Amino acid sequence: MSNAPFWKVKSLQEMTPKEWESLCDGCGKCCLVQLEDEDGDRVLTSLSCKLYDGASGKCSDYGNRSVRVPDCVRLTPENVGQLGWMPKTCAYRLIHEGQDLPDWHPLVTGDPQSTFKANMSVRGQVTSEMRVDDADYEAFARVWPGESGDK
Fold first, then answer.
1. Is residue 61 part of a domain?
2. Quick check: is 150 in a domain?
3. What's the mean pLDDT when you consider all of the chain?
4. Does residue 2 sit within a domain?
5. Domain range for residue 37?
6. Domains in the chain, number
7. Which of 3, 73, 79, 123 could bridge 57 with an S-S bond, Cβ 3.0-4.6 Å?
8. pLDDT tens digits for 66-89?
9. What is the sign, positive or negative, of the torsion defined by CA atoms of 12, 16, 17, 21?
């Protein structure tokens, strides 16, 4: 039996539900409103989904998120590779692409707060989309750490 961590020896399809869920580093970047231009290029904002709790860094209704927010995407091993908009630092994306987890990931550090401590989380830095008119979204465009091509 290998002593290697599960994410280095298992494919996404082979992971247990608990392992799958533990891959999420809690950055919250996938909960941000994204703007898309006419060329299909996407830009992240500092606006969060109405269910994202900016203080805790968690979804306020994770179990019912797809019902309450119909365009919330449930990640699966089958769709991860089709979601080019996923954050560049996303563990699901990294594992799918054959890369390792970043050194700040909670599974690597053993610290559930390490994403936040490494400034890779949007926690405490976002405004709910519910507080802003759609016409003003562009003013909230932002490049987040790890998303500009650097890892």
1. yes
2. no
3. 92
4. no
5. 8-140
6. 1
7. 123
8. 999 998 988 999 999 999 889 999
9. negative
pLDDT tens-digit series, residues 5-46: 999 999 999 999 999 999 999 999 999 999 988 888 889 999
In a domain, 147, yes or no: no
pTM for the structure as a whole: 0.88
Question: Strand order in 42-48's β-sheet?
Answer: 32-36, 42-48, 127-128
Q: How many C-beta atoms lie closer than 10 Å to residue 56's C-beta?
A: 12
